[in-house]
Amino acid sequence: MIGRIVFGILLCSYLAVIIPFSTSLTDRPVVVKLGTLPDAELLQIVAGDQRYLMAQYAVVKVLFYYGTLVETFNQKVPLQPEYPAMFRTLQTSSRLDPWNADAYYFAQAAFTWELNKIDEVNEMLEYGMEHRTWDYQLPFFAGFNSAYFRKDYAAAALYFKKAAELSGNQLLANLSSRYFYESGQNKLGLDFIEYMQGHTTDRKLIEVYELRKRALIGVITIQGAIDRYSRSFGKAPSRISDLTAAGVLAKVPADPYGGTFYLDEKGAVRSTSKFALAAPAQQPAK
Amino acid sequence: MSIFENFFRLSVASLVRDRILYLLFSMALLALLLIPAFSTFSMRQVQELSMTLSLSALSFLLLVITVLTGASSIWRDVEKRYTSSVLGLPVSRTAFVLGKFCAISLLLAVVSVVFGAGAFVAIKISAASYPPDVPANWVNFAAAIAFDYLKYVMLLSLAFLFSAVSTSFYFPFLGAISIFVAGSASQEVYEFITGSYGKTFAPVAKEVVKGVYYILPNFAAFNLKAQAIYSLPLVPGTLLLTLIYFTCYTGIMLSLAVWSFSRRELP
To answer: Which of A224, B109, B115, B214 is 20 to 30 A from A110, alpha carbon to alpha carbon?
Structure first.
């Protein structure tokens, strides 16, 4: 009888504690949830023949965390993303399994547009190129980063040439010149986003790309209006409202990141959101 | 029918009756069923992830079977007085040890082949959802499974050696696990010590590490997972050397197990 009472008390206690227990785990600080992996050298020794599984686990962990970032952004919950821990985890993953394509793809997807970690990502892509010697996408990514973000067309041309050789698609070799002299860099950005969107199975990433695409289409629309304004009036507009007032832009597009478009001192189209997933009040300092 | 064959058949029969193995096989089947679902966690390399999961699951399964069956083989027979009744007959202890060893090796081979076939189907299903950049190299996949199997046969020979000299379950069990961890890490540690990092070590410490490296089994050589997952080329020379290494090391450990069991006083 006493045994049954004790069992009943334990069962009731378990049912009472399970919800607050799981809630407290869900609400743990981000750094605790994402965890910090030891150095790759140490992990290689410890992991033995399970290192490839461990590398993939690290990438999936970062991907899940990134998914929660997208969720909190959609729900307008302010959250300071733990980007340095994410990037360190990806670097460790690529050291554990230098052939893992997911680590390189995700680094390209998450750390270039919003965070501008171009040099770090390109360094990681270079490391990947040493191992994934058949993969044209890594030099393709690095070429895009050099051209679009760094404006280093000479370096971009070398990467695109390598991508063209590996893929057998000579169009890649002419990418930088074709896009930059004929269509402008925004067109290159749009094409690249569509390429990346079509080459992933992850719904959260597809969602982020959709966000970027809408933001870039907004920039392209305003840029087109600026060009028309300059041709008509012989001078550049000083603010975006000039475009609607002059009738060259029917309506200022909305920034899908939640900010407002404006023209900076050089006349380039910018947004107060800085096209970042972080809530405006908590954006990391650039 | 030879004495060895009798012991072999008896050992196979006792393994087939072991209920823990049925539990392990059920878990293996569950793992195979879950592989296509878990593979979708990858963004770009669904086939590669399904292969990683398959090979990792098989490796873990073989490790558990090797340690459980190897560590409890000879020791348990001595404890249950089975050896006293059987070895009182005019039969050799060598045939007894080798018969049991070959029976467990056969079990590991069957598990490897059956799981490998199941993994082939699971990988095909996974790959259908997201076509891979590079087609799977099934020869490499089979080679990775075969060398993983050899690795665990080698570990089994060590578990037999520990079991032959032990009077309890714990020494062969923990000894086999420790050797597995150390043997899996030894190559990385050796390269770490002999590389630029090793310059900070005392020469005596380096020599000790080198000595331990040559004594421990080197399981890193049997790891062909990267070649299987990413269709990287196999190096025939290294594989041949690994096979010779396997034969020598396993043979030496088995000889020591037979020698120590032959000298052991049975109750």
So the answer is: A224
